[in-house]
Design brief:
271 residues; two-stranded antiparallel ribbon
């Protein structure tokens, strides 16, 4: 992938994200002012009554819109900061942002009153949620494992393979459209296996990044940023209370800044 093509795609992605965010904002505001927001019936069996962990729809909405804002800001930063840098890490990071954007489609569940209904549209929204859940750790893995010199020439092919793998399992894993989770995500099967997969993938990626930085005698600031980024995104994905909202967006923002700043310094030094 050439630098010019990547920059063009990053700009297009920013425009799509911004347009989508504005559309969702207008739709939500319209419902709030005129029709009233119809909240979906959620699965509440394991929710806590503690103040910081108590479920509130406003935190779910806040988490989704803050994630949209994060995607817009991060994509435009990448466009300007890596405009002339051939960094394979950024290709995989853009895939991570795509996963974040797919995750925000959770807002469509209350927007189109999908709770308690069955339709092909509901199934596709569930597939998109699951795709985001799978693609995010795979993209983060690509940032560390597939951005080394051995894989540098195969960045495009590897990124396409990761997307295809996530798409395949998102279609194969069963969904239960009758259950809406507190974060407005449609319930899916093999939850424990997917959690273990995400945890192992992020852990392996962190260890690999740590080893690479130690081998090249780099500071471990990038590793710290990567860890904070992984934790922050996970918290935002499960955001339905004030504690996960505040901690998730702070860790995601700080982790992204530390990671991208170190990546920029590294490639700036190479160039």
């Amino acid at each position: 992938m050439t630098i010019r093509f990547r920059n063009r795609m990053t700009l297009i992605f920013f425009i799509i994200t911004l347009s989508y965010s504005l559309l969702c904002s207008v739709l939500t505001l319209y419902q709030f002012l005129f029709n009233g927001i119809s909240l979906p019936e959620i699965y509440t069996k394991s929710l806590s009554d503690a103040f910081l962990l108590r479920y509130n729809p406003i935190w779910v909405y806040s988490g989704i819109f803050l994630l949209m804002l994060y995607i817009c800001i991060t994509s435009i930063i990448i466009y300007h900061s890596f405009e002339k840098t051939q960094a394979p890490d950024i290709v995989f990071f853009l895939m991570f942002l795509i996963a974040c954007l797919c995750d925000t489609t959770r807002i469509l569940v209350p927007a189109f009153h999908l709770s308690g209904s069955f339709s092909h549209f509901t199934l596709k929204i569930g597939n998109i949620h699951l795709f985001a859940r799978l693609l995010a750790p795979l993209a983060l893995m690509g940032n560390t494992v597939m951005s080394t010199d051995d894989f540098r020439q195969s960045t495009d092919r590897n990124s396409i393979i990761l997307i295809i793998v996530a798409l395949f399992f998102a279609e194969v894993i069963p969904l239960n459209t009758a259950i809406i989770l507190p974060n407005y995500c449609i319930s899916y099967g093999y939850v424990r296996a997917i959690r273990i997969f995400c945890c192992l993938t992020c852990t392996m990626s962190t260890i690999n990044l740590f080893v690479i930085n130690r081998k090249n005698e780099y500071k471990q600031i990038m590793t710290i940023g990567f860890i904070l980024l992984c934790i922050g995104y996970t918290l935002i994905f499960y955001c339905y209370n004030i504690l996960t909202l505040i901690s998730g967006i702070l860790l995601l923002g700080i982790g992204t800044y530390l990671y991208l700043n170190e990546v920029h310094k590294h490639y700036l030094w190479i160039d």
